[in-house]
Write a structure and sequence with these properties.
This is DNA modification/repair radical SAM protein. By secondary structure, the protein is an alpha/beta fold. The protein has helices at 6-16, 91-103, 120-137, 154-163, 176-182, 188-211, 236-250, 277-292, 297-302, 316-323, 337-340, 348-357, 365-371, 375-378, 398-402, and strands at residues 50-51, 57-58, 60-64, 109-113, 143-147, 166-168, 223-229, 254-259, 330-331, 382-383.
Length: 414
């Protein structure tokens, strides 16, 4: 490999990291260096690279340790047979970049992944060394997210969790058959075993922390994973069921979805075109329905068509409501929270406002309009003391009335 300067390496390895979607710094413990000790913080504002659930802009140095890899996964641009320019950081180069970027207020933390070089254990050792050096040698208190390697020694993966705020292990593809076809060197059983071990370590550390204040924290922001969407034949229904299973079995903080993107010199087994980005968006919406709106996986799957695909022109909650109209209209003055959460157009905050307001008086349609963003979408599915949709909920053209209007964008609009 030709010798490259640090800036050239950064250009190559930051670009190579853009395919990893699981980049967010929410959920970790609060640390800062305002007392004069240490460097960095897990809070504050910076250059926007990602958003936390509370709306804060999160800036992370997002790079690969190296884009060289001994594996040949068909969907990966950094696969062994790919004709891309290769580069590799040393552990100390990553430490130096992180500290210098932070001191210039460019970033709030580090997101570090890597291709596999020499062996899984060797690569995992390098990733852990970066986090260890930042924490122990430089007292870095900012956010660290490490991508761990499932077939590495479990002790190395455990060390990663002791230094990082969040660890993640990619399941790569939604189905085992897809993984065997496109990444035969990877083992879904091995991936799930590593996720199970990480969950156990997080639970044991949490239990120890409740009993002993001096007990070390272990991945306080939990673990996450990522699935590639559209590289194989998995339907949205397959992906939803798989994601729900991962949440239940491994207590994941997040499942990230990354739309497959065609790569240079691609294998003939891969699709020629990327899936619509809206498909990725609809999967995130379905994910939120399960996590925050009380929908069961089977109910979200019911919103999909006969081919198992979610509609792209309307969101999954609206699709479910149109398919199961016998659940509506819902009386906003009497309905329990779980039913209000199923009304299209009502988010969790709007529902909480409705529940709070109706304790003091009966709500009218205008009141609901002030508590939500779009009363037009809500009207066919609710009743108030002055509004009843009568035959509106039974109209054959209801979908066209409540679906977002399609708008042709102007190429040269200001």
């Amino acid at each position: 490999m030709a010798q490259l300067d640090l800036q050239s390496k950064l250009a190559i390895l930051a670009d190579a990291a853009k395919y990893d979607a699981s980049c967010a710094s929410s959920g970790t413990s609060k640390r800062d260096s305002r007392g004069g000790k240490g460097v960095g913080s897990t809070e504050g504002m910076g250059i926007c690279h990602a958003y936390a659930p509370d709306g804060r802009c999160i800036s992370l140095l997002k790079i690969l340790l190296t884009n060289s890899c001994i594996f040949d996964c068909a969907y990966c641009i950094n696969r062994k047979s790919s004709n891309v320019r290769r580069a590799r950081f040393t552990a100390q180069e990553v430490v130096r970049l992180t500290l210098e970027f932070y001191k210039r207020n460019y970033i709030e933390g580090l997101f570090l992944s890597s291709g596999i070089i020499r062996s899984s254990n060797y690569t995992m050792e390098q990733l852990v060394e970066v986090a260890r050096s930042l924490r122990e040698d430089h007292d870095f208190r900012g956010y660290i997210h490490l991508k761990t390697i499932p077939d590495a020694d479990p002790e190395l993966v455990r060390q990663a969790g002791l230094h990082a705020d969040r660890v993640s292990i990619n399941v790569e593809l939604p189905t085992e058959s897809g993984l065997q076809r496109l990444a035969p060197e990877k083992d879904s059983g091995q991936i799930e075993t590593a996720m199970k071990d990480t969950r156990r370590s997080i639970e044991e550390a949490g239990d120890a922390k409740r009993r002993f204040k001096s007990a070390p924290k272990y991945a306080p922001a939990g673990q996450s994973t990522q699935m590639i969407v559209g590289a194989d034949a998995a339907s949205d229904g397959d992906i939803i069921v798989r994601a729900s299973s991962l949440y239940d079995r491994f207590q994941l903080r997040r499942v990230y979805y990354s739309a497959f993107s065609p790569i240079p010199d691609a294998s003939a087994v891969l699709p020629l075109m990327r899936p619509p980005l809206m498909r990725e968006h609809r999967l995130y919406q379905s994910d939120w329905l399960m996590r925050f709106y009380g929908f069961k996986p089977a109910e979200v799957v019911d919103a999909a068509g006969t081919d198992g695909m979610l509609p792209l022109d309307i969101d999954p909650k609206l699709a479910w409501a149109l398919k199961f109209r016998d659940n509506f209209p819902v009386d906003v003055n009497r309905a329990p929270r779980e039913m209000l959460l199923r009304v299209p157009g009502l988010g969790t905050k709007a529902v909480d406002r409705i529940l709070s307001s109706r304790r003091w008086r009966k709500l009218r349609l205008d009141d609901v309009g002030r508590l939500t963003l779009s009363v037009a979408k809500v009207r066919p599915f609710i009743t108030t003391i002055d509004w009843r949709p009568t035959l509106l909920i039974d109209r054959n053209d209801l979908r066209s009335l409540v679906a977002p209007k399609q708008e042709q964008l102007e190429l040269f609009a200001a």
